Amino acid sequence: MGDISPNYAGVIMGISNTFANIPGFLAPLVTGVVVGDKHELADWTVVFLIGAAIVTFCNILYLIWASADQQPFDIFESKTVDKEEVASEGEVAGAKGITIIGQVQAEKS
């Protein structure tokens, strides 16, 4: 997560862990519905085929759209300005040079 968004790594990790934990409570429910009280080999085969299908589908999505490039929403630009410039905009002026950091919208190509 640090590769795609160092500034928001914690938020992205929290969101991805939320989605990653969904199968943890859905898998026993689906297994109980498919297998039921029978416990036959054919029923367990269906359970494992469902799991294999989900993993294969997610892997294909990952291979098509995944990227380790830094995302546009994480790119910031900084510049140093004189205190007169900052004071004229109604912001607090401090030392001789002030560093202002602002978000830059990346152009879609």
Structure characterization notes:
With 109 residues, this protein is of the alpha+beta class. It folds into two domains: 6-65; 75-103, no CATH class. Helix content is 53%, strand content 13%. The chain has three helices and two strands; from the N terminus they run ααβαβ. A two-stranded antiparallel sheet has the order 1-2. Helix 1 (9-35) packs antiparallel against helix 2. The protein starts with 8 loop residues before the first helix and ends in a 6-residue tail after the last strand. The mean pLDDT is 80.
Helical percent range?
40-55%
What's the helix count?
Answer: 3
Q: Write out the strand line-up for the largest beta sheet, numbering strands in chain order.
A: 1-2
Between the first and last Cα atoms, what is the distance in angstroms?
A: 24 Å
Number of domains: 2
Mean pLDDT: 80
Percent of sequence in beta strands = 5-15%
